[in-house]
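Quick one:
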Amino acid sequence: MNRFATKSESKGLNELERVIEPLASYICATERPGAALRSVVSALLRSVEETNLAAKSHFRAVVNGGAS
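Output:
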């Protein structure tokens, strides 16, 4: 299946590249790039988990009769 990126997907990729480039440079410049990469991935996963918890909490509040 051929898939073409939509305009919004392209914009998202461009924004992501602006963040990834300096982060990759930082990781590569450290004395222990493997450890730095693991720390970055850990921080990213924590952020995703926190976002998911907030979304679930909001969803439960809406389902139970009102947003908080």
